[in-house]
From TrEMBL:
Coiled-coil segments: 120-165
Lineage top rank: taxon: Bacteria
List of residues that carry 4-aspartylphosphate: D53
Keyword Coiled coil: yes
Annotated catalysed reactions: ATP + protein L-histidine = ADP + protein N-phospho-L-histidine
Record keywords: Coiled coil, Kinase, Phosphoprotein, Transferase
Protein name, entry field: histidine kinase
GO molecular function per UniProt: phosphorelay sensor kinase activity
The Histidine kinase domain, residue ranges: 174-381
InterPro entries in the record: CheY-like_superfamily, HATPase_C_sf, HATPase_dom, His_kinase_dom, HisK_dim/P_dom, HisK_dim/P_sf, Sig_transdc_His_kin-like_C, Sig_transdc_resp-reg_receiver
EC number in record: 2.7.13.3
Species of provenance: Geoalkalibacter ferrihydriticus DSM 17813
Length: 382
């Protein structure tokens, strides 16, 4: 059996005649006596082709055609028109008719046009499928390009991080050393000055201020050295789960005061990592300090720890203000800070420590939604 064809005409004779011709040629035929009846049929069962009369009472052919094409685009329509209505035929084609047949028609002519319309329909539907497939491939390709680009960007960021770390290490170690000696002298002379002034002297507050400021510079230098070179480390088996717990305990009061909710998701029985406990603590402390700073009026802090045979995966997530995209690549830079009283060394210290164990760290953030730091540490550091 060939395709099903719906014939819509208000003249019964035409319906009978066309049905007979088409059935003879092996088509399945259904009929309707009005446009409305035809549309009701399509609603139940959309057929590939409709033969539609132009001149019909109640709902005229043009209206029926437009509604069919709008609601059933895969149904093709051939119109019957009366002689002398070629101009109307143009309008019908514009409205989506595939072809038109002038009444009275020759049987063979009608059949040829039907075969032709059905052939075009098959080709066009096939083309649509191909286009959809190509579109899908395109999307997959774009997705893969985006994934690979992101991978490349991450790899590049790591290289840049490593280079910065090395350059920063040389510079700061040298500088700190050079500054510390004169700083020592300043401190010493200020102390002499201080002790040589009697207790009631107004001027005494000046050397006091000098000593305090010198102490502050010394603190910064200490941080700087800490961020740039590995101090003497004592390796021992460290339980990361315990370190998370310790760090949270340390900030308990602040967490409570700010109304921050803490959630931990720690995989059971993590293996011990050979590391310096003090260094590991610094990782968590710095990340938690930063996270809490961004949630002055409450929020949530989520720390998770997972592992496989090779790596630990640590995540520290906050629901704070987030990091603007343009700062995302700078937060690990020494001295990069957006805080009035920050030194911008916290994350440099974290980066230096993570790298020291052959690990990786990166950050993801949606401004307004929060920030997540991802750390990957080898279970057996080199
Ligand atoms: N969790 C976070 N949410 C939003 N911004 C962050 C977060 N952590 C770090 N930052 C941004 O990165 C910058 C650098 O952080 P880093 O810890 O290195 O320095 P700091 O906190 O500014 O100063 P320091 O830690 O030396 O006191 C911060 O100033 C802040 O802008
Ligand atoms: Mg910090």
């Amino acid at each position: 059996m060939k395709e099903k064809i719906l014939v819509v005409d208000d003249e019964k004779v035409i319906l009978q005649l066309t049905s007979m011709i088409l059935r003879n040629k092996g088509f399945e035929v259904v009929t309707a006596e009005s446009g409305r009846e035809g549309l009701d049929f399509l609603e139940k069962e959309p057929v590939p082709l409709v033969l539609l009369d132009y001149m019909m009472p109640v709902m005229d052919g043009m209206t029926a055609l437009k509604e069919i094409k709008e609601r059933f685009p895969a149904t093709y329509v051939i119109m019957f028109t009366g002689k002398g209505s070629e101009e109307i035929a143009v309008e019908l084609m514009k409205a989506g008719a595939s072809d038109y047949v002038l009444k009275p028609f020759k049987n063979q002519d009608l059949l040829d046009r039907i075969e032709n319309a059905l052939l075009i329909r098959r080709i066009e539907l096939h083309n649509q499928e191909l286009r959809a497939e190509i579109e899908k491939w395109n999307q997959e390709l774009e997705q893969r390009v985006a994934e690979k680009s992101a991978e490349l960007e991450r790899a590049q960021m790591e290289i840049v991080q490593a280079e910065k770390l090395a350059a920063f290490g040389h510079l700061s170690a040298g500088m700190a050393h050079e500054i510390r000696n004169p700083l020592n002298s300043i401190s010493l002379f200020a102390q002499i000055l201080h002790s040589s002034l009697s207790a009631d002297e107004d001027l005494r507050e000046y050397p006091e201020k000098i000593i305090k400021e010198v102490d502050r510079i010394d603190g910064i230098l200490r941080n700087l050295l800490n961020a740039s070179k590995r101090p003497h480390v004592e390796l021992q088996g460290v339980d990361l789960a315990k370190e998370v717990e310790n760090a949270l305990e340390l900030f308990e009061a602040q967490i409570h005061r700010q109304g921050v909710e803490v959630e931990t998701d720690i995989a059971p029985n993590p293996p011990l990592i050979q590391a310096d406990a003090h260094e590991v603590a610094q990782i968590f402390n710095n990340l938690i300090v930063n996270a809490l700073y961004e949630m002055p009026h409450g929020g949530s802090l989520r720390i998770s720890l997972r592992y496989d045979e090779q790596f630990f995966f640590i995540e520290v997530r906050d629901s704070g203000r987030g990091i603007p995209k343009e700062n995302l690549y700078r937060v690990f830079d020494p001295f990069f800070t957006t805080k009035e009283r920050g030194t911008g060394l916290g994350l440099s210290v974290v980066l230096r420590i993570v790298k020291g164990y052959g690990g990786k760290i990166n950050v993801a953030s949606n401004p307004g939604e929060g920030t997540t730091f991802h750390i990957q540490l080898p279970i057996f550091p080199l």
